[in-house]
Amino acid sequence: MNHFPKEDYGFSDLKQVELAIESAQHMVGQATRSMDQEQLEAATNALQDAKEQFKRAVAHQSNVDEAFYAHSSALLEQAAHQLSEAEDING
User: Fold this and answer.
1) In a domain, 61, yes or no
2) What pLDDT is attached to residue 5?
3) Hey, which of 37, 43, 50, 68 would disulfide with 24, CB 3.0 to 4.6 Å?
4) Is the CB of residue 58 less than 8 Å from the CB of residue 64?
5) Could you tell me the pTM of the whole model?
6) Residue 45 φ/ψ, nearest 5 degrees
7) Range of 75's domain?
8) Is 71 among the domain residues?
9) Is 47 inside any structural domain?
10) How many independent structural domains does the chain possess?
11) What is the pLDDT of residue 37?
12) Considering the domain boundaries, does residue 79 fall inside one?
């Protein structure tokens, strides 16, 4: 877990956020296809980690552009919804 000072939170850190979101999406996709409880839990953790990284990036980066924010928010919401539906089905 990284806690970057505001001025040190830059492009590469935003790329890390983007990669965390992509990784979480991939894990959610795999977990919802397999419906394996362990994979669902791992996907839930990956999604939570990606959300936390995203929140830190927004809090520490004054120049996060609106397109990045909107796109990342939508991807996180979509993955959360997909995971929620799978968990409802899986019980």
Assistant:
1) yes
2) 44
3) 50
4) yes
5) 0.83
6) -65, -45
7) 11-90
8) yes
9) yes
10) 1
11) 94
12) yes
